[in-house]
Fold this protein.
Amino acid sequence: MKIVVIGTGYVGLVTGTCFAEVGIDVVCIDVDTKKIENLKKGIMPIYEPGLEEMVIRNAEKGRLQFSTSLKDNLTEADVAFIAVGTPPGEDGSADLKYVIAVAREIGQGINEHIVVVTKSTVPVGTANKVRNAVQEELNKRSSNIDFDVASNPEFLKEGAAIDDFLKPDRIVVGVESRRAEEVMRKLYKPFLLNGHPIIFMDVPSAEMTKYAANAMLATKISFMNDVANLCEIMGADVNMVRKGIGSDPRIGNRFIYPGIGYGGSCFPKDVKALIKTAAENGYNMRILNAVEEVNDAQKSVLFNKISKHFNGVMKGKNFAVWGLSFKPKTDDMREAPSLVIIEKLLAAGANVKAYDPVAMHEAKKDLGEQIEYSKDMNDAIIDADALLIITEWPEFRTPNFKVMGKLMKNKLVFDGRNIYDIGEMKENGFDYYCIGINTTK
């Protein structure tokens, strides 16, 4: 089989590379000439563990190619995946201009049957818009070429995307014809041989499944953060509460870790888009409105603790920050809580020195030279009045507390991810604040 994947962002590049890994001929298309030239040289536009090696290996074997021309690569392609961005508009709705533009280009270039698959996260009803756009271009050509439109949402976790694609919990495919189902089943056959389930459904249901999944996970996070805030007030330990409820299989222990809010490219955008889609159809998503409200407030929780500790006076104070990306194992800074916290510190007149294993280059695009970037985690804490744990990178979990105490001006830690033991921090002489536990008692 041959497929084309339009868009070499996070979803498109992972999708194309993983299909190539199982023996399918793949051409990844992007209008960004520099990005394509870099990919041909093995230079990645994103950080994802294992991706660079896989791209280079499959490119060398000829199974994975990169191009800026969609028209030149549609010939003999069985499937065209649309994996371009759907950025949120000012009103929260998903902007589909790139999706529709690609659909039109497909309509202008196909000469035989193809399955056009939306891989981008798109609102319910987008497949119809894609179908109409392709058909309009065919009509302009007076062409009778048959094609199918399908939906195949991705469920990739940044930092574990390769494993998620090659060993999926489930593969969801929305189709409108038996022919499209047969093509998609053949495409995913290498995964089905390992027993991974493929679920075929109608296209609107597949489109909704993606949004519903992310909205549910976002809801679990906001719920736990809400509980954590109440635990602090009532004198309960949210870590104990988490273990107590997580042992119930109906609830499970995933996505119930308290923290400083969710970020990234998916949850914030998808929650907003689902709320907007509902509103456009006369329905109010009351729970998701609350989820978003809680999350927005949670990003300020750590700053509020800092402000209270310093009695609102942070001007001239030096704050060390460990972790900038919205989660570990990625350089993604989109909607990262670190941005909210750092901007608040800067507005209060504080100085910030930050370290992140992979995200500092991306962080500079948002923060510029407003903060100082450190060469390593210990460099960041030299003469610091306080340390903030923003992202729970593994290397931050077991630091040398004695060395920390000597390097820092004050032995003070604000832990937004609850990665340290309260007793151990006190034994080492640190004042320690975390989420969902009153440590000042």
Q: What stands out?
A: The first strand starts at residue 2 and ends at 6.
